[in-house]
Write a structure and sequence with these properties.
This is Putative NAD(P)H nitroreductase. This protein is an alpha+beta fold. It has six helices and five strands. Bound molecules: flavin mononucleotide. Flavin mononucleotide binds next to β4.
């Protein structure tokens, strides 16, 4: 797919089913995710792939334990189930600021690099023919998920890229944004 076509027609998809990328395709996806701009070469990102029945069961348990631990109630428990079943694959993107680096860069810059990595995962999976959506919700702040994913104090789960194949065909058209409010030419 032409790069500009991909960038100008990308859409999030919320109804996702099998198939999801295989191991070889994931290698490509993470090669793309790790080519993002990265001031100082600090590699401030980590990725956790949740795929397959064992991983999905672990994810579900962590989501449900979050609801119990944070006393969030039955509505959130239902949401936890939906997140667990959202897609055949979830990729957690964790911003891992290298604060102890010899020449650290501001944390906000490192967060943005992780955000770029998340977007690269979206674009790369799209380019491979899959669909996805980036979600966050209260799950990103979950102490259970943070611990399960080995987050340090400064680390932030910045999203879960839910990946699979669109259940229904959908039109891919350019958004044709009215650019006037967003762009100034000096
Ligand atoms: C950091 C971030 C967090 C998001 N969190 C959620 C979320 O928790 N739930 C949700 O439905 N959409 C969430 N979205 C929005 C969707 O990923 C998507 O971008 C939005 O629905 C617009 O669709 P589009 O990407 O096709 O334009 C989030 C987007 C970003 C960038």
């Amino acid at each position: 797919m032409d790069a500009l076509d991909l960038l100008s027609t990308r859409r999030s998809v919320r109804e996702l089913t099998e198939p999801a990328p295989d191991e070889l395709e994931l290698e490509t996806v993470f090669q793309c995710a790790t080519q993002v701009p990265d001031h100082g070469g600090l590699t401030p990102w980590r990725f956790v792939v949740i795929h397959g029945s064992a991983a999905k069961a672990r994810f579900r348990r962590a989501l449900e334990d979050t609801v119990v631990q944070m006393k969030l109630g039955s509505e959130s428990m239902a949401k936890a189930g939906k997140v667990a079943d959202f897609a055949p694959m979830a990729i957690a993107v964790i911003a891992k600021p290298a604060t102890a680096a010899q020449k650290p860069k501001p944390e906000w810059e490192q967060m943005l690099s992780a955000g770029a990595a998340a977007y690269a995962i979206q674009l790369a999976t799209n380019a491979l023919g899959y669909d996805n959506v980036w979600i966050t919700g209260l799950w990103c702040g979950s102490p259970v998920l943070r611990q399960e994913m080995g987050c340090g104090e400064k680390d932030k789960i910045i999203g879960f890229i839910m990946v699979g194949t669109a259940q229904h065909a959908f039109p891919k058209e350019e958004k044709n944004t009215d650019l006037e409010p967003f762009v100034t030419y000096w």
